[in-house]
Amino acid sequence: MKNLKYIIFTFTILLAFGCQDQLDLAPESQIGENGFYENTSQVEAAVIAIYDGLQNVPLREFALTEMRSDNTRTKSSEGDWAQFESFDVEPTNLAIGDYWVANYNVIFRANRVLENLSVVDDASLRNQFEGEAKFARALAHFNLTRAFGGVPIIDKVIIQTETEFFGQDEQSAVLAAVESDLASAMENLPSSMPFGRATKGAAQALLGKVRLTQGNYSGAESVLNTLISSGTYTLMDDYRDVFYAEGNDEIIFAIPYLDDDANESQDFSFEMTVGGVVSGLNYVTDDFNANYSPDETVRTETLFNPLVPAEVGKFLTASSDARLCGNDWIVMRYADVLLMYAEALMAGGASTTNGSALDAYNAVRTRAAMPTADTELTKEMLLNERRVELAFENHRFYDLVRFGVAESVLSAFATANGETFAPTDVILPIPQNEINVSGGALTQNPGY
Q1: Are the CB atoms for 447 and 422 separated by under 8 Å?
Q2: How large is the C-alpha radius of gyration of the chain?
Q3: Exposed (0-12), middle (13-18) or buried (19+): which is 107, by Cβ within 10 Å?
Q4: How many CB atoms lie within 10 A of CB 255?
Q5: What is the pLDDT of residues 290-306, one digit of tens each?
Q6: How far is CA 419 from CA 9, 86, 413, in A?
Q7: DSSP-derived 3-state class of residue 253
Q8: Cα 43 vs. chain centroid, distance in angstroms?
Q9: Helix extents (H) in 283-428
Q10: Which residues pair with 73 in a beta bridge?
Q11: Which residue in 119, 96, 99, 100 sits closest to 31, CA to CA?
Q12: What pLDDT score was predicted for residue 133?
């Protein structure tokens, strides 16, 4: 792990999770970095600490994904944030540094659990903990490799002298490690868990996306078909309920937050909406509006803030303190799975007449009261549907990359706005601080 503060600083874990329906992430106990895990409750506390670490990941992820696409922009091109909308991200950018640290913190916490599983006597619970840790480790490595390309694979707790872990691994190797972790997680995770904890379905959905990213369409089709056929998840009747009736049947995995809680809230809702007199992030672009069908009615009031249409409407806060927001972050939901399934059946082609692909696509369109596809689904139709249905949920940039059109779409968008998108902009620079800490074992990505 490249940010060594997670090796040498004290690691806080949390009181074990009991039988609550919601994840309680409030810190209530600590085990030092050199402490010993002696029983099941201590290991479970470490499992819950993984989820606590995950809360830091989405805080500014929208800058790396939505603002680095044709979907959103800053309110007034301020500071480091403007680098994302101009496709000119510097290695010293604070947001990419924080994102790197947040994900490797999750990986560290997951590895701490995995190295202490032997003290868990109950085999079923031990398997579950292993599945949760490997799911989180896979998600964090997947986040990192999509953002930065080749990154270090950290599959154990390391110390400062283990410099063989400091350099980058090829993206193909990182994705293979992610797939291995998810295969194990699928075997060990139950189908049902308290909201906010990983399940077998979450591992299946993420594995489907990993395989699509690798161009393994048949593998993606297989795992996504299994998930769909399980009947575990369903589309909500009301699109708005996906975001404002939290913990609903469409959510496959989400990161929970609590309103007005100094420890368990988030402020991305503030940045996407209230912002400030000058500040404000993740505001809707003119390009998104220009490509938004006038026939859209069902999704409109949720996509945009009805009071300020330039603001994203999916994460309007109900908190009394605008910076202590409780909107959950949805990592994966069933509509995404249906559209990924159609993508897998299209198998990289320009179109498909496959009936199952049409059914999956049409299910999402029907919920939105939009026209359906009768005989053919094209790549353009599918990409456009993903853009609207999953708007502002941090999918757009990686969808463009996965569909093989990032350079053409974003070059045109950049040119129209007086900017330039280069082929090397498909991945971000390695944070300069991490290169410095690694003693040069990490090398900068081309173009930066």
Answers
A1: yes
A2: 21
A3: buried
A4: 17
A5: 999 999 999 999 999 99
A6: 42, 6, 8
A7: strand
A8: 25
A9: 286-290, 300-303, 334-346, 355-367, 379-389, 396-402, 406-416
A10: 283
A11: 119
A12: 98
Residue 278: predicted pLDDT: 55
Angle at CA of residue 400, ends 390 and 252, nearest 5°: 35
Number of other CB atoms surrounding residue 241 within 10 Å? 14
Question: 72 forms bridges with which residues in the sheet?
Answer: 284
C-beta separation of 392 from 303 below 8 A: yes
Distance (Å, rounded) from C-alpha 352 to C-alpha 66? 28
Which residue positions in the chain have pLDDT lower than 70? 1-36, 274-279
Q: Which residue has 């463009």 as its token pair?
A: 400
Tokens 């964090």: give the residue.
140
Q: Residue 11: CB partners within 8 Å, gap ≥ 6?
A: 31, 32, 33, 49, 108, 109, 112
pLDDT of residue 70: 98
Q: What is the pLDDT of residue 76?
A: 85
63 in Cβ contact with 265 (< 8 Å): no
Q: Which amino acid is at 148?
A: F
Q: Is 74 helix (H, G, I), strand (E, B) or coil?
A: coil
Beta strands in 266-337 (DSSP E): 283-284, 329-333
What lies within 8 Å, CB to CB, of 159 at 6+ separation is 7
Largest CA distance in the chain: 62
Pairing of strands 251-255, 377-378: unpaired
Token duo for residue 434: 């991490």
Tell me how long the chain is: 448
